[in-house]
Amino acid sequence: MISRRHFLSATAGAAALASALPARAETGQIVVGTWGGDYGQLLSDIIDKPILIPKGYEIVQDIANNDPRKTKLLAERQSRRGSMDVALLSDSDMYIVAQSGTFDPIDPKQMTRLDKVFPELKSDIAIPHIYSAQVILYNTNQVKTPPQSFADLWDPKWRGRVGLADILYPNNTLAAALAGGGGPSNLDPAEKKLMEWRSLDVKIYPSNEALAAALKSEEVWLTTMWLARGFMWKKAGIPLAHVVPKEGAPAIVFQGSVPKNARNKPGAFAYLDAMLDAKAQVAFADKMGYVPTVSDAVLPEDLAAQVSLNETERARLVKPDYAYAAGRSQRTMDFWNKDFKG
Amino acid sequence: MKTMALLVVPACLLVLALLVGPMILMFRISLNQFSPTQLMVQAFTPDNYIKAATDPYYQQIIVSTLGIALFCTLLTLVLAFPAAYWLGRIESRWKSLAVIATLFPLLVGNVVRSAGWMALFSRGGLINVTLLKLGIISEPLEIMYTPKAVIIGIIAVVLPYMILTIASVIESIPRDLEDAAANLGASGLRVFWRVILPLSAPGVAAGSILVFVLCMNTYATAVLLGGPKFKMMAPAVYDQFVRGNNWPMGATLAFMLLAVTMAFTVFGSVAFARRYRTA
Question: Which of A54, A219, B38, B69 is the most buried (most CB within 10 A)?
Answer without folding.
Answer: B69
